[in-house]
């Protein structure tokens, strides 16, 4: 059964000229329990909006959000969300930022600091516990934001372009970390990416969103072997075949947006 669902969701935002901009129109999306799903699509097509609706941060004009079949309004309790613009609190040290979600859930100080320290080590941030966010590189800030969410073992993890600003090596290391985390915890993951290699290497299913107003135009089951590591799969002939197919459809969507089709 679907764990997380968007049913016929339409979202509009007021524009400065007084008109309404339709970001999503009749969007259906479902993610099964334990599934790893990647969402791709042109810039501005509504991917972040779809995650924001699921996270209860944007209210749809029509349609529903369902969790395990039940309609939900507002914030879903079991979701850890790393949004595209996620920022660390500038007045807190990196350690206290990583420990924040645990603090909000009432984890005692000593325990949460120990857990935050261990997670920081896993994310390659050891030695920066007492630094402030402004003293970190862009990629380090992103890693700290990921650590903060992982600290509370969310049953559902939603990530919006989590590895975007990272260098290729760090990116691949973290992608493999996410794969191990998913394999060992059985959590459900939905993430947005512009990187097709990242979408295919990690996911069970890639979902292509149309030009705005966004809706799901096509889904691609990723039948690559598991357990996977990015380096082991990205040169497989099947991988290349999937990448070409998704790339072609994405180009068609982009051309449609430019009015060529
Ligand atoms: N809070 C908001 N207020 C007004 N307009 C918004 C708001 N959030 C998103 N939009 C508009 O909705 C559309 C979809 O935006 P969204 O951020 O979901 O796109 P996206 O697919 O995530 O793009 P990208 O890949 O560039 O991150 C855009 O035209 C954007 O300007
Ligand atoms: Mg976005």
Q: Kindly state the percentage of residues in helix.
A: 25-40%
Largest sheet, order of strands side by side? 6-7-8-3-9-10
The geometry reads as globular
Ions, cofactors and other bound molecules:
adenosine-5'-triphosphate, magnesium ion
Order of helices and strands: EEEHEEEHHHHEHEHEEHH
- Straight-line distance between termini: 37 Å
Q: Briefly note the CATH topology name of the domain at 1-78 and 202-261.
A: Rossmann fold
Largest sheet: 6 strands, mixed
Tell me which CATH architecture of the domain at 1-78 and 202-261 applies here: 3-Layer(aba) Sandwich
The Rg value, from CA coordinates, equals 19 Å
- Total strand segments: 10
Work out the helix count: 9
Strand content: 15-25%
CATH class of the domain at 1-78 and 202-261: Alpha Beta
Which structural class best describes the helix and strand composition? Answer: alpha/beta
- Summed over residues and divided by their number, the pLDDT gives a mean of 92
Low-confidence parts: none
Can you give a write-up of this model?
By secondary structure, the protein is of the alpha/beta class. The chain has a domain of 138 residues: Rossmann fold (3-Layer(aba) Sandwich), CATH 3.40.50. The chain is 36% helix and 25% strand. The chain has a six-stranded mixed sheet with strand order 6-7-8-3-9-10, with helices on both faces. The chain starts with a strand and ends with a helix. The model has no long low-confidence stretch (mean pLDDT 92). The structure holds adenosine-5'-triphosphate and magnesium ion. The site of magnesium ion has 4 residues, from α1. Magnesium ion binds next to α1.
